[in-house]
Amino acid sequence: MVNENLVKDVVKEPYKYGFVTDIETEKIEKGLNEDIIKLISQKKEEPKFLLDFRLKAFKKWQKMKEPDWAALGYKNIDYQDIIYYSAPKQKEKISSLDEVDPKLLETFDKLGIPLTEQKKLTNVAVDAVFDSVSIATTFREELAEHGVIFCSISEAVKNHADLIEKYLGTVVPANDNYFAALNSAVFSDGSFVYIPKGVTCPMDLSSYFRINSGDSGQFERTLIIAEESSSVSYLEGCTAPMFDTNTLHAAVVELVALDDASIKYSTVQNWYAGDEEGIGGIFNFVTKRGKCLGKRSKISWSQVETGSAITWKYPSCLLLGEESVGEFYSVALTNNLQQADTGTKMIHIGPKTKSTIVSKGISAGNSKNSYRGLVKMGTKATGSRNYSQCDSMLIGDQASANTFPYIKSQQPNSEIEHEASTCRISEDQLFYLQSRGIEFEEAVSMMVSGFCRDVFNQLPMEFAAEADKLLALKLEGSVG
Amino acid sequence: MEIIEKIKTNKSIDNQTEIQKICLHKLQSSPLPNPKSELWRLSNKSKLSNFLDYSINEKDSQFDMPYPKNSASTIRLIIGENCQIKLIEKNYSIQQLSEDEIQKYIKEQISFFKQNENWSDLLNLSLSCKNNILGLKINGSKIPPIEIFSHASSNSLNAKTLVIFLEKNCDVELLQVNLGKENSSLSQSTFFCLKENSSVNHGVVSYGENRSNLLNSLNVIQQKNSAYNLGSLHFKFNYARFEISIKQSSGNAKTNIKGMQITKKDEQISTYTKIEFNGPNGFLDQINKSLADDKSHAIFEGSIIVPKIAQRTDASQLSRNLLLSNLAQIDTKPQLEIIADDVKCKHGATISQLNEEELFYMRTRGITLTEASKLQLSSYFQEIISFIPISKDKWDLLDKLLNEN
């Protein structure tokens, strides 16, 4: 017989990234108005088109209403009580990592992020974003040899304005939704990746997002463009310190894949989730969308969502190009009073497009975990196919698991298959493992890991190891 | 929308019963459903307002039976006509519910109503006059099949209400037929209360004629150890919605639902189901099929709600859809909301067209394309039709459907 309390203990895990780095930062005053936006734009020395983009987005945002359709309950966000720009004070220009504040480097070391280029063994190029500003991007020269551009978006605005002007806001328009509009108006930094024609990116690219101050929101924007026949794998990690207040994180990610290009975007999200009483934690409202513009292009999202008090996130694919492919693999673990409403949208527009959705939700404690997804076959999507599978696992009788798939077809010559199931950790299986001498805690962890296997298999190696460790950590408790 | 004006001003609905008063009061401030909730339900606004365009008619035109009576023992009732019934036999009894009983039950139900979710019922109960409410109390077993008809006359809106109590250990077969005449709107609300150990095979067949509309709502309360089997078929309506709400009030009950909707031309037919388990050991097996052709639109939205108390629930829901035309559209939303942890819940949904390999196989055996498609459709339909309690000899629904498709 499984002791319910044991299971509850097992899923408890202290948040180990909860420290604050004491570093001098430059912040602007709280609140949001046109002047603030102009100030952000001015601080970043942006060209006029970007300021116009921001102001237009702000005007639209003012007219929009915060969405309330998600199965989430949270206290109202006071958008005037947020600092929209916060950056570590540093020298004007950094030519090498030696000039970065050692405290910052220490922070990223603590987080286990290989910022120093000596750690070449890992073969991952990192762009680290601290609060609002990108701190350092590694391996730049090596990438430049292949023609790959990997830098912070503010640098890209200065050095590659043409690309930014051409692609920014084409996948997620400024008025797409409330949080995307807010991001478009105030985004501070983020990563920019450009893979030229025919290039397979020689290493995995990674960005690491760190919120440090308690009263500033983080609004980063990522733009990845994969030209014809190119491919890239991009990893994203997130942590934040523990504060009693809720911090807003509203990011936008845009991916563009041209003919035969492929983009793999993996996320391990471990923002601070709040304490057991639900105090504090990050409000994570993210718009991620990829556009398979070219023929035979492919965009694959994989995500492991374990943090945040509130998660509102639907990485989507617009499948325009003929025979383009969209994929979504997700594990969402919620515990205590966390709430996650996450899923995907696969919009089939072009003919012979294919999409696969595999979503695994694990809810423990008093948490709420919802899958919400849309699969749409447009009138021209002849010969298109979709397969979706959504499984939920419930741990304890206080947690809830919801599934809300929306399926829409306007094309008879297409096929959609969807299945969803709910289960719990089976007592028989637990008993079996325990009778073989496996500790209860390890047995639970093994079973959760097995439940998520389909998704972990899709993660790049570095992340798969991290994700496995993360889930094991979440499941590590006081049971001895 | 004459009716909405009437509701707003609360005029010209004479001799209001207490229920009508309550419902009118509830509707008065906002007589139309919330546009946002209708948007989520993908309702076609102009079709919905077309439903309300006819004037209310409390008296029906002459009713023509769609098929002859199967056997002498079959009990036939037509809502709205003077259908006095009091049958007390050795094994069973069928009696009319008194006005007080109906009022008490409906009042209790209304107290749980939400304006957005139960708009169809509120509208029905506001418009349904005393004569158009039929209440039955059924007891015993070996009861002859019961057929209940409801229809709307041309160029008018008719509201009919049916309340049925199945007493303990009762076992019955009941077929409900809703017919829509040309240019008519029918609002049909049915309230079913299944007491302990009772069981019913309930069939709902609704079909209309040119430009007829239907709002059909079904509210079922299932007590312990009851079994509710529903087979439903909706077709040939310009606009129809079938709203099913089933509550297993203390779990330990069985629900089987097999439903189908067929849309052609520019019709829109939708089915919304909400199944709540308010106790442990509940069982649900649901399949909903849609077929959309021409420029039509078929919608299915099903939610299964399993609260903490409903441990060991076993629920499955399947939505199977055939899309036969480039201009037709199918939407399906199967939903699960689960808090209990020891449950087995699953759902599945597919949208496709007729299986090409099967068609090819049949054609290689010398069967024409039309014949082969018919064969495939008939197997698709048969699963649902065989679940509807109906006599095959007298009213062959399958033939009726195949001839029209």
From TrEMBL, chain A:
Domain SUF system FeS cluster assembly SufBD N-terminal: start-end pairs: 47-200
One Pfam match: SUFBD_core
GO aspect biological process, one term: iron-sulfur cluster assembly
Domain SUF system FeS cluster assembly SufBD core: 209-451
Domain of life: Bacteria
Protein family (similarity comment): Belongs to the iron-sulfur cluster assembly SufBD family.
NCBIfam families: PRK11814.1 (NF008773), sufB (TIGR01980)
Protein name (database record): Iron-sulfur cluster assembly protein SufB
UniProtKB/TrEMBL annotation, chain B:
GO BP field: iron-sulfur cluster assembly
Domain SUF system FeS cluster assembly SufBD core: 153-375
Record's protein name: Iron-sulfur cluster assembly protein SufD
The species this protein was found in: Prochlorococcus marinus str. MIT 9314
Pfam families: SUFBD_core
Extent of the signal sequence: none
UniProt lineage: Bacteria, Bacillati, Cyanobacteriota, Cyanophyceae, Synechococcales
InterPro entries hit by this protein: Fe-S_cluster_assembly_SufBD, SUF_FeS_clus_asmbl_SufBD_core, SUF_FeS_clus_asmbl_SufBD_sf
